[in-house]
């Protein structure tokens, strides 16, 4: 069972700020200590909410595709147009579009969504249990049946169903989900995987069997836009393609795949 | 004022709240869970943290079903969450109760868990707040200040009654304790206050200097508020459409906050225990 638990704390003092050295377990220990100090009153906590979520949280996403684009192209996110002038190639124009999304200072875009067109693919063909896929340092293991842990995907169905399970495994992975976002177009056994940041220990992908065909990530004419936070509410963000040759995969009107908020919150006072 | 979010991905659950395991006791168990995550006992695999320098608030919108006739069907569609379907009743209060019951008892889990609603509403009609003036909402007190509020429980008197009303509504909605039980929306110089659930202490009386302002205590009606259960900016992207004689206050839920960090480098940090 995988849990994604959310704690929201309302206080008059900030959490310890992460630094280059204050990270990972050192940072989490400071948060734990901060929570203890909240009980003593020194953190000036006035209320908190805790959500015990028995399902893994995932970000919501959508794919923007350029094919023989021209003129002004881009994406409308939450009604905000983010566009560039098509130049050189679809891939170069998508790279510019992604940069524009990430640089947006509009309150309906900034801190809410991020974009990448650094894309690789993983094609599935009769994968058997025990086959492993490695995305940088993160390992995904094929199992037959419902996954019971992070890093597992189910290969008991069709290739298309297996691809959907791999997409879910990547997107809900606690650490890999930060760096990668996967997408399988409906009816496809090929998973598109976008790299949003460089993971700490290598970016090379590999598989233990030829039933997984890997194409290493490079800049592409397809971009992925996703919610920065892992939550169900991300599914409410609207998207639309703008310009000649631009489209959203599967004609989505909104981001899809977000999860992690479908459990009632518990609220309390410190 | 900060609203900080910590999300822990683990193979073991947080302690389950019970009638006795709540408030400080629950927070202590959450702190212990975080410590166990560092020690490995909680089998935490990763965590995300958002150090937000702004108070978080829920997104909300109000709906007026006063004109819905008895036995007429109507619905409120919240895009990508679901439809709240209900039928007009003999009185406005009964219609309001029917809408709330439809939300709370819907067969769709998203409707039940991502949203909250209420038809129990009162009103502050505001006339010239003064610095230091107190407004009471149940057990919580809000103090009028000049300029930008710096503490929970403060609101700005503003330059006009409209600004004062807007600031009071905001103060109620971002208050860590009060907003759990109440939701406010400003309408010109009125502040509508809905009681989402009954608070534990002090009842739900609205208190204000009646020599200056007018207060209408909370009663049942057909003006209903629907809000996100969680305090999040993302709630603002839930769009609204209605079927039947129901008038929404806008096209989307509004007022959600809590996911936009003060600085990019402090925004969302991911780490491994």
Blueprint of the fold:
The complex is a heterodimer of chains A (270) and B (273).
Chain A (H helix, E strand, L loop, with lengths): L2 E9 L12 H17 L4 E7 L9 E17 L2 E6 L4 H14 L9 E12 L7 E4 L2 E6 L8 E3 L4 H14 L3 H4 E4 L6 E6 L9 E3 L4 E16 L11 E10 L17 E3 L2
Parallel strand pairs in A: 7-8
Antiparallel strand pairs in A: 1-2, 2-14, 3-4, 3-12, 3-13, 5-10, 5-12, 6-7, 6-11, 9-10
Chain B lengths: L1 E9 L12 H17 L4 E7 L9 E5 L8 E6 L3 E6 L4 H13 L4 H6 E11 L8 E4 L2 E6 L8 E3 L4 H14 L3 H4 E6 L2 E6 L10 E2 L6 E15 L11 E4 L3 E2 L19 E4 L2
Parallel strand pairs in B: 8-9
Antiparallel strand pairs in B: 1-2, 2-16, 3-13, 3-15, 4-5, 4-14, 6-11, 6-13, 7-8, 7-12, 10-11
Task: Considering the chains and any ligands shown, give keywords for the structure.
heterodimer, A: 270 residues, alpha+beta, 2 domains, 7-stranded antiparallel sheet, 4-stranded mixed sheet, 4 helices, globular, B: 273 residues, 6-stranded antiparallel sheet, 16 strands, 35% strand
Fold and architecture overview:
- The complex is a heterodimer of chains A (about 270) and B (about 270).
- Chain A is built from four helices and 14 strands.
- Chain A has helices spanning about 25-40, 90-105, 160-170, 175-180; strands at about 5-10, 45-50, 60-75, 80-85, 115-125, 130-135, 140-145, 150-155, 180-185, 190-195, 205, 210-225, 240-250, 265-270.
- In chain A, the strands form three sheets. In chain A, strands 3, 4, 5, 9, 10, 12 and 13 form a seven-stranded antiparallel beta sheet that branches. In chain A, strands 8-7-6-11 form a four-stranded mixed beta sheet, covered by helices on one side.
- Chain B is α+β, with helices and mostly antiparallel strands.
- Chain B has two domains: about 5-55 and about 260-270, no CATH class; about 55-255, no CATH class.
- Helices cover about 20% and strands about 35% of the residues of chain B.
- Chain B has five helices and 16 strands.
- Chain B is globular, with a radius of gyration of 20 Å.
- In chain B, about 50% of the residues are buried.
- Mean pLDDT of chain B is about 85; it is low at about 260-265.
- Classes of the chains: A alpha+beta (about 270), B alpha+beta (about 270).
- At the A-B interface, strand 1, helix 1, strand 2 and strand 14 of A face strand 1, helix 1, strand 2, helix 3 and strand 16 of B.
């Amino acid at each position: 069972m995988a849990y994604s638990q959310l704690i929201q704390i309302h206080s008059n003092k900030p959490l310890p700020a992460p630094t280059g050295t204050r990270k990972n377990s050192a940072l989490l220990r400071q948060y734990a200590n901060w929570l203890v100090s909240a009980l003593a009153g020194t953190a000036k906590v006035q209320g908190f909410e805790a959500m015990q979520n028995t399902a893994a949280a995932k970000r919501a996403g959508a794919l923007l595709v350029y094919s023989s684009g021209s003129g002004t192209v881009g994406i409308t996110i939450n009604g905000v147009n983010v566009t560039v002038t098509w130049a050189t190639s679809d891939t170069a124009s998508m790279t510019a579009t992604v940069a524009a999304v990430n640089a947006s200072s509009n309150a309906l875009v900034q801190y809410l969504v991020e974009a990448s067109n650094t894309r690789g693919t993983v094609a599935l063909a009769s994968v058997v249990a025990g086959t492993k896929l490695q995305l940088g340092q993160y390992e995904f293991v094929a199992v037959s049946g419902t996954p019971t842990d992070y890093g597992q995907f189910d290969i008991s169905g069709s290739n298309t169903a297996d691809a959907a399970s791999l997409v879910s495994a990547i997107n809900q992975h606690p650490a890999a989900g930060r760096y990668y976002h996967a997408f399988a177009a409906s009816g496809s056994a090929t998973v598109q995987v976008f790299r949003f940041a460089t993971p700490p220990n290598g970016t090379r992908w590999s598989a233990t069997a030829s039933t997984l065909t890997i194409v290493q990530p490079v800049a592409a004419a397809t971009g992925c836009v996703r919610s920065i936070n892992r939550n169900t509410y991300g599914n409410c963000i609207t998207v639309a393609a703008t310009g000649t040759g631009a489209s959203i995969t599967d004609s989505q009107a909104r981001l899809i795949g977000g999860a992690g908020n479908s459990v009632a919150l518990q609220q309390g006072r410190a | 004022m900060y609203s900080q979010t910590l999300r822990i991905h683990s193979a073991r659950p947080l302690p389950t709240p019970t009638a006795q395991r709540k408030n400080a006791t629950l927070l202590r168990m959450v702190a212990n869970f975080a410590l166990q995550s560092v020690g490995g006992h909680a089998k935490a695999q990763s965590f995300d943290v958002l150090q937000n320098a702004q108070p978080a608030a829920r997104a909300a919108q109000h709906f007026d079903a006063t004109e819905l006739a008895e036995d007429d069907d109507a619905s409120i569609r919240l895009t990508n969450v679901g439809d709240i379907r209900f039928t007009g009743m003999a009185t406005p209060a009964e219609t309001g109760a029917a809408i709330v019951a439809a939300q709370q008892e819907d067969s769709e889990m998203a409707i039940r868990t991502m949203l909250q609603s209420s038809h129990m509403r009162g009103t502050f009609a505001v006339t010239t707040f003064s610095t230091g003036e107190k407004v009471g909402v149940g057990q919580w007190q809000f103090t009028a200040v000049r300029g930008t509020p710096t503490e929970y429980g403060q609101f700005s008197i503003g330059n006009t009654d409209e600004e004062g009303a807007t600031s009071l509504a905001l103060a109620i909605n971002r208050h860590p304790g009060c907003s759990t039980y109440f939701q406010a929306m400003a309408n010109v110089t009125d502040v509508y206050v809905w009681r989402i659930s009954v608070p534990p202490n002090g009842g739900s009386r609205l208190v204000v200097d009646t020599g200056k302002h007018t207060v209408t205590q909370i009663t049942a009606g057909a003006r209903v508020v629907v809000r996100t259960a969680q305090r999040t900016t993302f709630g603002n992207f839930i769009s609204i459409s209605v079927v039947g004689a129901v008038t929404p206050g806008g096209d989307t839920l509004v007022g959600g906050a809590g996911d936009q960090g003060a600085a990019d480098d402090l925004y969302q940090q991911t780490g491994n225990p």
